[in-house]
Design a protein that fits this description.
This protein is mainly beta. The chain has helices spanning 109-112, 331-340, 364-372, and strands spanning 5-13, 24-32, 50-53, 58-66, 76-84, 90-92, 105-106, 116-123, 130-132, 144-146, 149-160, 166-175, 184-190, 204-205, 213-214, 222-228, 233-241, 252-258, 265-272, 278-283, 287-295, 301-308, 311-318.
Length: 380
C-alpha cells in the first residue's frame, strides 16, 4: 500500500446546504527554518501545492478555506480542520510535549476577519494522542484519534459571510533524514462517512436546533505534494586576486571539488566573480572534500578538508604571475610577458594574461609582480 499523509478538513455552515454546493478547501506548503508562528509567505489566493524538499527538511503546512455562497446558503458558523499524519518519513513537529496547543499555529487572518480561534493542537508520537469530537468531546466512540497530527476549530459568532479565501493556520512537518531521494509524498484532503455527524471530517449545517445536513464524505479531493530531492550544499564566499588593480567583476574562476588528497575533481564549476570578488555555487555533494580554485594568471589554491553541508563560507587569496597558466611562475612566464611587453588592449601582440595588474597595458608594473612571485608554485 502506498504511504500517504492523510488530511481531513471539515467545515460547518448555517442553513440548508444543497448537495451541489461545495466549499473550497486548499493546502499550502512552504519551506521553514524554525517552527514558530511565522505564517506562510504565500497568499491564500495563490497557495503553493508542490514543494521540493531535502531529507531532514522542515516544512510549514498551512490549511485554508473559501466559502462560496450558494442559493440561500449565505453564512457559515464553524470551520474545523483535522490532520492525521501516516507516513514513515514524515512527522509532526511538537517541541512542547505537555501543552500540545502550542504546537499548532493560527494564521493572522483569523483575527483580521473577526473570527474566533477556538481550538488548536498538534501531537506526535512523543505526546499523548489527539482525540477530537466536535459536539460530544466525552464520547470516545464517536471521536477521531491520531498519534500524530493536528486540529484547528474556528467559530464565526453570528455567522460569517466572508467568501474570500483565507488561511486557518499551520503546523510544521519534519522530513526524515533517511527519506529516499526521489520519494513523492502526497498530502491529500479527503473525507469519510460519519453517521454520528460529530467527527471533524463532517460538515454540520443547520437552520435550527434539530435540522442537520451531513457533508463530510462529499469533499472534493485536494492534493499537495512533497518531492524529496538530493540535499544541496551552498558554497559562497570571496576570492582575493592579489596585485590586481582592476575590478574583479567578470574574472572567471575554476572551482574543483575533490575527494580528500585527490587531484581528480568530483565536480568542476566555472564561476564568474562579482565586483566584490564574491561567488556562489550549489552542489549535491556532501561530506568532506577539498575545494581547489584557479583563475587565469593566478596560481591554484586548494582548501583542504571542507565539510560540505548546508551553507559553507569560503575565503581564498590567489597569487598572481602565472602568465602561461601552468600553475608555476617561471622563465616561461617571463618569455610570454616579453612577447607582449608595451602592448595595450587591441594591439596585435596584446596578451590579457600578461597584464597582471589589470590596467589594460603590459608594462614594468606587471614585470614587478612577476619578479616578486618568481619561483612560486600553486597547490596541486
Amino acid at each position: 500500500m502506498r504511504n500517504r499523509v492523510w488530511i481531513v478538513l471539515s467545515l460547518s455552515l448555517c442553513l440548508w446546504l444543497p448537495a451541489w454546493a461545495q466549499p473550497t478547501l486548499f493546502l499550502d506548503v512552504s519551506p521553514a527554518a524554525v517552527a514558530d508562528a511565522t505564517p506562510t509567505p504565500n497568499l491564500p489566493t495563490a497557495p503553493v501545492s508542490s514543494l521540493e524538499v531535502e531529507p531532514g527538511a522542515l516544512v510549514r503546512l498551512s490549511v485554508g478555506f473559501r466559502f462560496v455562497p450558494q442559493g440561500d446558503v449565505t453564512r457559515w458558523y464553524l470551520c474545523s480542520a483535522y490532520l492525521r499524519i501516516d507516513h514513515p518519513y514524515l512527522q509532526a513537529v511538537t517541541p512542547n510535549l505537555s501543552e500540545v496547543a502550542e504546537n499548532a499555529f493560527w494564521h493572522p487572518q483569523i483575527q483580521q476577519l473577526g473570527l474566533t480561534a477556538q481550538t488548536r493542537a498538534a501531537v506526535s508520537t512523543q505526546t499523548p494522542p489527539l482525540r477530537a469530537n466536535l459536539l460530544r468531546p466525552t464520547d470516545s466512540a464517536s471521536s477521531v484519534e491520531t498519534p500524530s497530527g493536528a486540529i484547528w476549530v474556528v467559530l464565526a459568532p453570528g455567522g460569517s459571510t466572508v467568501n474570500e479565501p483565507f488561511f486557518v493556520g499551520h503546523v510544521y512537518l519534519k522530513l526524515a533524514e533517511n527519506a529516499p531521494v526521489g520519494t513523492d509524498i502526497p498530502i491529500t484532503v479527503y473525507s469519510q462517512p460519519d453517521s454520528t455527524r460529530t467527527k471533524p471530517n463532517s460538515l454540520l449545517v443547520t437552520d435550527g436546533s434539530t435540522r442537520y445536513h451531513r457533508f463530510g464524505e462529499n469533499l472534493p479531493v485536494q492534493v499537495a505534494r512533497l518531492h524529496v530531492a538530493a540535499s544541496r550544499t551552498e558554497l559562497f564566499g570571496q576570492v582575493s586576486l592579489e596585485d590586481y588593480l582592476a575590478s574583479p567583476a567578470g574574472v572567471q574562476v575554476e572551482v574543483q571539488l575533490r575527494e580528500p588528497s585527490s587531484t581528480s575533481p568530483a565536480e568542476r564549476h566555472m564561476l564568474t566573480l562579482d565586483e566584490n570578488g564574491s561567488f556562489r555555487l550549489e552542489t549535491s555533494l556532501r561530506g568532506t572534500y577539498d575545494v581547489s580554485l584557479k583563475a587565469s594568471h593566478w596560481l591554484r589554491r586548494t582548501l583542504s578538508g571542507v565539510n560540505l553541508s548546508g551553507r559553507v563560507r569560503l575565503a581564498a587569496s590567489l597569487t598572481n604571475g602565472d602568465v602561461d597558466g601552468d600553475n608555476e611562475v617561471t622563465l616561461l612566464d617571463f618569455g610570454q610577458m616579453v612577447a607582449a611587453f608595451g602592448s595595450v588592449s587591441g594591439d596585435s601582440n596584446w596578451d590579457a594574461n600578461a597584464d597582471l595588474d589589470g590596467d589594460e597595458e603590459v608594462n614594468l608594473f606587471d614585470f614587478g609582480i612577476l619578479v616578486r612571485n618568481f619561483g612560486a608554485i600553486g597547490d596541486d
